[in-house]
Design brief:
heterodimer, A: alpha/beta, Rossmann fold, 14 helices, B: mainly alpha, two-stranded antiparallel ribbon, globular
Chain lengths: ~425, ~290
């Protein structure tokens, strides 16, 4: 019995060294641990919008965030690091689901990506979730808002890191309604994201004891919102909610500020990024309340990280940049703990993990639906910026449990 | 009733701006027979240049209203001399494709240089408030933009119908051979007219800057509405562009007020109806059809 075990151990050792020899002797003595890594390296795939509307809020600078995570991982573990060689590969999905789909395949199969990160745009995000499930490789989504990632389309290999539309609704609609903004009119762009946001916000306003007088659909994209704004002011609501994004949001806010509602009715915005405030100017958004997943000038820890980011990029990070860092860092930590980049082993280390890092406060990777829950913030835009990019006052921290609620019942892990 | 008046005024305000924006398109088609697809991109360039002038050289709105059209005139002259002129003798489709390609280049270039999130721009001092009569409110800037637009349209109309230059330009387009026989250098007028059309696009861009998102893509959707305006008014007709601009503004405002989801569709339904009944547009010359 004993001799057979010895025999088989020798056999395994022999075939392992044979395999290594066949690989051109990559497994020298100094990288003995790396035999547990596929292809002897860890490859992070960054798939996002590098040229379109989401370029500024994640785009090429998310690569910088991933590289910061790699630096920190290597500094932390030094010689003991399981992943000695870590590469980043990037691709532009151009906000098209079919391109995202083929790029994800290419990343997993040809570029040997162990994990795909970011993927803003809900349609693109869902396409990549299907690839992750089929290829049994990890996928940490950051940029997309759709709750389907942790709902009907959830799977073992997909995690949703930063935010979703339900969180935005609970944060913004819930808080503003509780604070006395009880009557709302909502204007939303007439496509999947806008319709989703309108539903979530209307439900949350009602839950918090308020009412929505009108929900008005606007064609997408739109330039001229003057009449929409007039309609949104009818019935004298306390709050007008704009569910627009990008250029539509800027058009809406500019024209709202020139309308008679300015100063009389509170403007709430469904989804806003710091890059939106930067592009329109802080005074145009002054007083607008919205839910932010992270703010660079919230505390010392965030500020320190943002300073490092600024040295490399000459700009301040959006929450998506910080979340990309956090996701990459926690992925590498999980590889370290598991001692391998095998996807199932890494998933095992990630599930249920409680995390406090620069992005996640009171964070937990929820096992039931793979939502990465964490504290989010109700932000109000300052009336003037003390320094460039310092645009937000954090009015309230919304605890993770309140922001994320119960695990999504539509999700059944397979 | 006051709501209806409110919608009507908002429609007219938007419509005046549409008229000015479409005017350059109509002038260039009327005189050169070129369907300038890059009109939206030139409108975008006007707004971007205004924003850059403000951010980097502290040149304000009122100066930009003068300087930007001059710069865009120069750009238009170069465009005509270097590109458009060589294709004038061919099927109009060639220049349509050329200007379409140019649009892609301009939009990508602006994206590369200024990003995608857009550039900030303020409402000029004194025009930030509203003008209210009873329960009817209009933004002061929207009123200014409309009055200014209609005034420019009228001035261009007068220039073309009441001055010697206008007479020569019209004669050069309607009967080039006969005009040439009278000793007028027809070709000489083509370049400045093209530049003038592009300058009008730039002017509309400056006018849009305080009230619309200034992004590389701002002209991509807008050009479609402008084509609708020009088709409804009659290709090449200046009076047509003005009337159709106001009409489209009104139809859009009523659409938003009473059937918001269909607000943009009604514009194209209107266009289809006009083309069905009068293929050359409301004020187009019959032979165009």
């Amino acid at each position: 019995m004993r001799s057979r075990t010895v025999q088989s151990t020798v056999a395994i050792a022999a075939s392992a060294s044979l395999a290594l020899a066949a690989c051109g002797g990559a497994g020298g003595p100094q990288s003995g641990g790396s035999t547990k890594l596929t292809d002897d390296k860890v490859v992070l795939g960054l798939l996002n919008d590098q040229s379109g509307v989401y370029k500024d809020l994640s785009g090429p600078n998310s690569k910088v965030a991933l590289e910061m995570a790699i630096d920190d991982y290597k500094a932390k573990y030094g010689e003991k690091a399981v992943a000695k060689t870590i590469e980043v590969v990037t691709a532009d999905h151009q906000n098209k689901a079919d391109i995202a789909n083929s790029k994800a395949q290419e990343m997993y199969d040809r570029q040997k990506a162990d994990v795909i990160l970011d993927v803003p745009n809900s349609a693109a995000a869902l396409a990549v979730a299907t690839q992750a499930k089929n290829k049994k490789k990890l996928y940490l989504n950051i940029g997309a808002g759709t709750t389907a990632l942790t709902g009907a389309s959830c799977n073992k290999y997909t995690f949703h890191w930063a935010y979703n539309t339900a969180v935005l609704a609970r944060g913004t609609a819930g808080t503003i309604t509780q604070e006395g903004g009880t009557s709302w009119n909502i204007v939303y762009p007439d496509y999947a994201f806008g319709q989703d946001m309108n539903k979530s916000f209307s439900a949350e306003v009602a839950t918090a004891g308020g009412s929505v007088g009108q929900s008005i659909a606007s064609p997408f994209p739109s330039d001229n919102f003057a009449t929409f704004i007039t309609k949104a002011g009818e019935g004298s609501p306390k709050v007008v909610g704009s569910m627009h994004a990008g250029g539509d949001l800027i058009n809406f806010v500019k024209q709202f500020n020139q309308s008679s509602l300015k100063g009389k009715v509170q403007l709430a915005v469904g989804l806003m990024f710091i890059t939106d405030i930067h592009s329109l100017g802080v005074d145009q958004f002054a007083g607008t309340q919205f839910t932010d997943a992270w703010y660079w000038n919230f505390d010392e820890q965030n500020k320190k990280w943002a300073d490092r980011f600024k040295e490399k990029t000459n700009t301040r990070p959006s929450f998506a940049h910080a979340a990309n860092y956090s996701a990459a860092m926690n992925y590498l930590e999980a590889v370290q703990e598991a001692g391998t980049d095998d996807a199932d082993a890494v998933v095992g280390k990630l599930e249920g993990k409680k995390i406090n890092d620069v992005f996640l406060r009171n964070g937990e990777i929820r096992k039931a639906d793979h939502a990465v829950t964490h504290d989010v913030y109700l932000a109000k835009v300052k009336s003037s910026a003390p320094e460039e990019w310092d645009y937000e006052d954090i009015e309230k921290t919304i605890p993770a449990a309140e922001a994320y609620g119960e695990a999504n019942p539509a999700c059944s892990m397979s | 009733m006051s709501e209806f008046i409110q919608y009507t005024l908002q429609g007219l305000a938007a419509g005046g701006f549409y008229a000015l924006s479409a005017l350059g398109l109509a002038v260039i088609f009327g005189v050169l027979g070129v369907v300038n697809f890059s009109h939206g991109a030139c409108y975008m360039l006007g707004a971007v240049i205004a924003a850059v002038l403000l951010a980097e050289l502290q040149v304000g709105f009122w100066v930009a209203l003068l300087v930007v059209p001059i710069l865009m005139f120069g750009f238009g002259v170069l465009m005509e001399r270097l590109l458009v002129r060589w294709l004038l003798a061919l099927d109009p489709l060639y220049n349509f494709l050329l200007t379409f390609g140019l649009t892609l280049i301009l939009v990508e270039a602006v994206k590369q240089r200024y990003g995608v999130s857009g550039l900030p721009y303020e409402v000029p001092a004194g025009l930030g408030g509203q003008v209210s009569v009873g329960s009817v409110n209009l933004s002061a800037y929207a009123i200014f933009a409309c009055v200014f637009s209609v005034a420019v349209c009228l001035a261009v109309g007068l220039l073309l119908t009441r001055t010697r230059i206008g007479m020569i330009v019209r004669a050069s387009t309607e009967a080039p051979e006969r005009t040439r026989a009278l000793g007028i250098n027809v070709g000489r007028w083509v370049t400045p007219v093209f530049g003038f059309g592009i300058a009008l696009a730039g002017l509309a861009g400056v006018l849009a800057a305080p009230t619309r998102a200034i992004t590389a893509e701002m002209g991509s959707n807008f050009i479609i509405i402008l084509f609708a305006v020009v088709v409804i008014g009659g290709l090449g007709s200046i009076l047509g562009a003005v009337v159709a601009g106001l009409l489209v503004g009104l139809v859009e405002a009523y659409g938003i007020a009473y059937a918001p989801t269909y607000a943009q569709i009604v514009i194209f339904v209107l266009m289809a109806l006009v083309v069905l009944v009068r293929p050359s547009g409301l004020f187009g010359r019959e032979e165009v059809a």
